[in-house]
Every structure is written in C-alpha cells, then in structure tokens.
Write a structure and sequence with these properties.
Layout: H1 23-34, H2 48-63, H3 69-90
Helix pairs in contact: 1-3
Length: 98
C-alpha cells in the first residue's frame, strides 16, 4: 500500500503540449477540461486519489473484458484534460493547448 504523505501545497507543473489524433481522445480531453462528464467526478482539480480511481476503473473494466480502444482513448483524454484544466484556466489561451 502506498505511504500516505501530509497534504502538500499545489505542485506547479510544466505546460503540456500534446498532439490529439483521434476523436475519442479529443472527446475525453474536452470532458476533462470542462468537467462535463458523468462517468467520474472531475469537478475539482486533479488529485492523486482521483487519478488513481480512474486508472483503477480502467484496469477493472479491462480485466472484465469490457474495455475497448475507443473507451481507453476517451478516458486517457479525460485524464489529460483534467490534469491540464487548472493551467488552462490560469493562463486562458495558454496552458495545455498547442
């Protein structure tokens, strides 16, 4: 089990630049940026617990045989958008977009 650390201040991250090649990833990315999704609660900023929850969910549905390529790309896009959202809003047109 992971060792629990004392909560730290928000850790600033470098700007991300990524190339989006599929509609599924783009859809998830927009959902993460806007928090407009019903599958996960991403209304607050990205957190370790939230990221682990989404990855754990992907692993579980993969083990059950329900995870297809489109869903994987959409959920990974959601993670990328969610992580980028704070920077996106802080820097308006800068942030995680190319």
């Amino acid at each position: 089990m992971a060792q629990k650390l004392q909560p730290l201040a928000l850790i600033p991250t470098a700007h991300l630049s990524l190339e989006i090649n599929t509609r599924d990833f783009h859809t998830g990315y927009v959902e993460g940026l806007t928090a407009d999704t019903r599958r996960f609660d991403v209304r607050d900023g990205a957190s370790e617990e939230g990221l682990v929850e989404i990855v754990r969910n992907l692993i579980e549905i993969g083990q059950e045989g329900w995870l297809n390529e489109e869903q994987l790309r959409r959920d990974v896009g959601l993670l990328a958008g969610w992580i980028c959202r704070r920077q996106f809003h802080l820097h308006n047109d800068e942030g995680c977009r190319e």
